[in-house]
Design brief:
Number of strands: 0
Radius of gyration: 35 Å
Strand content: under 5%
Length: about 230
């Protein structure tokens, strides 16, 4: 097997490098004079690159690269949005992720804009992706999709841009105008929370009033029955 042969060669070369064995000259050609097959040559090239990399690491020249284990959490990274808003954005994202690969590509974005009633040109769609495509893979991840609404809320999108139109037509309210024109988005959020608290307080007061009315009615009915029994 090619894998076993490569492993054997790698082991031997490492032993030679560490001084455990003496190098032995080997004729690279076959007995019939034929040249070595390209696949074996490629294996030797790969092996050489690995040995060179190992030498650089041992000499302190190269750096160890560990894969990133960072997990994206929209609720902690996009704290300016409520859980409901993020869930609404996620629902919209998944609706148009036709390939179910956790990305929205150019064709899926094209369909999204058509469904929103704002079709874009091919160049316009590419520019929309480019504006938030941080990893330059020419498609939108969910995090990059959330960036659209962050930029919209912060007023960083041109009014006539495709992304601005997307955010405006998505029915996910993240603009300052959507919360009665507060000066900034964050002031608007505070105002919305205060209004929500006042609304909840009014509901509680109504419930208390109804409860008191029901108790008063119950007392009146009991008093009337007591009065009736006195005349029997």
């Amino acid at each position: 097997m090619a894998t076993d042969e490569l492993s054997s060669k790698l082991s031997r070369r490492l032993q030679i490098e560490d001084g455990a064995e003496e190098p032995v000259a080997v004729d690279a050609s076959h007995e019939n004079g034929a040249e070595e097959k390209p696949s074996t040559a490629n294996a030797d090239t790969e092996l050489g690159a690995k040995l060179m990399r190992r030498g650089e690491l041992n000499d302190g020249v190269g750096d160890h690269h560990q894969p990133s284990m960072k997990v994206f959490n929209p609720y902690t990274e996009f704290k300016e949005f409520s859980r409901k808003q993020i869930k609404d954005m996620e629902k919209m994202f998944k609706t148009f992720d036709a390939g179910k690969d956790n990305y929205i590509d150019l064709m899926e974005l094209k369909l999204m804009m058509e469904k929103l009633g704002a079709p874009q040109t091919h160049l316009g769609l590419k520019n929309m992706i480019k504006e938030v495509d941080e990893d330059l893979d020419n498609k939108l991840s969910f995090r990059e999709f959330l960036l659209i609404f962050r930029k919209a809320a912060a007023g960083e999108l041109a009014e006539d841009s495709g992304l601005s139109v997307l955010a405006r037509l998505s029915e996910i309210d993240v603009s300052s105008e959507g919360v009665k024109g507060a000066k900034t988005f964050f002031e608007a959020k505070v105002q919305a929370i205060n209004e929500s608290n006042r609304f909840e307080a009014e509901i509680r007061q109504e419930q208390e009033d109804k409860k008191k009315q029901a108790e008063d009615k119950k007392h009146r009915q009991a008093a009337f029955k007591e009065l009736q029994s006195a005349f029997k």
